[in-house]
Design brief:
alpha/beta, single chain, 338 residues, disordered N terminus, 2 domains, D-Maltodextrin-Binding Protein, domain 2
Amino acid sequence: MKRAVFRAAQTLMGLCFLFSVPVAHADSRQLTFCVWDILGQQGDATNMMKDYVLAARAWGVNIVSKSYTNEGIAADDFKAGQCDGALITGMRARQFNQFTGSIDAVGAVPSYTHMRDVIDLLANPKLAPRLASGPYEVVGAIPVGAAYAFVNDRSINSLAKAAGKKVAVLDWDKSQAEMVKIVGAVPVAADLTSYGGKFNNGQVDILFAPIPLYKPMELYKGLGTKGGIARFPVINLTLQLLIRKDKFPPTFGQKSRTYISEQVPRFFGMIRNMEREVDSKHWMHIPLSDRDGYEKIMREMRIHLTKSGYYNPQMMTLLKRVRCKREPDAAECSLTDE
């Protein structure tokens, strides 16, 4: 009798231990993400990664993030293997995966509704093979907001009037200089540390930036009393999460992309709040009559830059399908050259 009671107690203790163990165990190894955040430890990207780290633990992965204020160094450290993952701009991510790096193509994603569709597609397992390239995998694209044209003089209110004006372009992204030359403007190379400064001190007349950079770069100084922000999305920008595939479980990428897709309403809420905080006097509204012409020019730019090797043709086809699903009567939907 005593022996039976003892065995029953052992069994009960064993079951209690079994059910007290969490379903997912975080790997004891720490995997490092290089995170670009223009504000360093105080910025939105760094704060977003705190939530991502917690989510990854539920997938059995132990992540620590390391903030960089210089995006180039973050990307180089990732490439050199000093980081297992990275959070960098889609334009910078193009060197690791041209397919997703081409989401940030001029005029390719005309609204936040379209961007919602794109991020949902990235979470579709059928697209997973496209998101792996060599040792790298893209495990999420996070919307940053539309890049608008900031001008130091509101009289620069058309592409024709931009001809001959100086435009800040990122020195490492040659596609930007190509776009500026196409409209007859003058590209002025800058990196992210000098990008806003060149506009604020009058070295350039035009700068393209999303509203989340408005305050950190103090772009209101460059606007002054004569400038404005053209409320017409030129590019819809993303931050992209990348990993070295061999460092993570095989299921990590899909779980990450699904998680990011679920967070999109929160991201867009933050973006819209920032856009509402901009003083209304700074916004310049583009007449509807002019928009078709701008869209045609941006389409011609995309075709040129795709043929030149900057944009991925498969992504351009996918983004066109997204646009035409929303607007099937658009002129481009009957054409076959993109």
